[in-house]
Amino acid sequence: MIPTFIYGTAWKEEETERLTRLAIEAGFRAIDTANQRRHYFEAGVGAAVAGAIRDGVVRREELFLQTKFTYASGQDHRLPFDPHADPAEQVRQSFASSLEHLRVETIDSYVLHGPSRRRGLSQEDVEVWRAMESLPVRFLGVSNVALEQLDKLCELAAKKPTFVQNRCFAATGWDAEVRALCRERGIVYQGFSLLTANMNELRSRAFRAIVQRVRRTPAQVVFRFARQVGMVPLTGTTDPVHMREDLAIDDFELTAEEVAAIERLA
Which of 80, 144, 249, 256 has its CA 20 to 30 Å from the CA of residue 40? Predict the structure, then answer.
């Protein structure tokens, strides 16, 4: 099951359980989190999932659960692994901790929460990916990755990444180069911060004209655009009304000219 829309749970702290439950009730069937207490409350996601399954809102097999391994440099003091362990053991410990937090026996997608450095891949990255390849998960992915890093990872990986998850800026053509490589390699691109990273562009006259023509919210237009260019969008909205609106993008379509105009907003 490859999701078409994902609910993101970053930066929600003690509201994570309530908001994740609301997202499931609104119709989201894919949830993204990370075993990184600095920015995520993975156990809150697990509590929401367990509650929704218990109450008959959803079955486990209907949910796509995605979480991440995050290096110690991206964590605070609440580490999900022994910082003195080797990279492969840290992956195994973090994965086991995620299973406990999420209260499930399987995880659908396991993502490297970004390479260990801004350019290139380190030996540590290679060891972490090899450890991830040995985990009992359906899909692997990588987040916050640059073009040359993704290209190198695809070359060395025995189990290729199914997903790339990047912050998506209109200023770079909505991450055009990385998305192009994803298309070439059969990788599914997940885009986050589609709204918050592009507020200036979404105030432009060209974008507002499209919103007016289709008579939808700006968020709906952005998410529909993402869908039409082959991107799986993430939303982290905390508003139940917006959750339902964001999912309601299957009954309208942007023209090819409008898609091209949005790609050129910057």
Answer: 249
In our burial notation (b when 16+ CB lie closer than 10 A, e otherwise), range 216-233 reads: beebbbbbbbbbbbebbb
Please report, for the domain that includes residue 145, its CATH number: 3.20.20.100
The total of structural domains in the chain comes to 1
Quote the CA–CA distance of 266 and 249 in Å, as a whole number. 24
Query: Residue 163 and residue 142: Cα distance in Å, rounded?
Result: 6
Which conformational region is residue 167 in: left (phi greater than 0), alpha (psi within -120 to 50 degrees), or beta? beta
**Is the pTM higher than 0.90?**
yes
* Structural domain boundaries, residue 121: 6-197+232-250
Helix, strand, coil percentages, rounded to 5, for the chain:
45, 15, 40
φ/ψ of 175, rounded to 5, equals: 60, 45
Q: Which helix (H) or strand (E) holds 66?
A: strand 64-69
CB 238 within 8 A of CB 19: yes
Interval 131-177: pLDDT, tens: 999 999 999 999 999 999 999 999 999 999 999 999 999 999 999 99
Beta-carbon contacts of residue 187 (< 8 Å; ≥ 6 apart): 150, 154, 160, 161, 162, 163, 164, 181
What digits encode the pLDDT tens for the residues 203-240? 999 999 999 999 999 999 999 999 999 999 999 999 99
Is 208 contained in some domain? Answer: no
Integer Cα distance of 243 and 240 in angstroms: 5
Q: Cα(266)–Cα(206) distance, rounded to whole angstroms?
A: 11
Which phi and psi angles does 132 have, rounded to 5°? -60, -35
Using CB atoms within 10 A of its CB, is residue 55 exposed (0-12), middle (13-18) or buried (19+)?
exposed
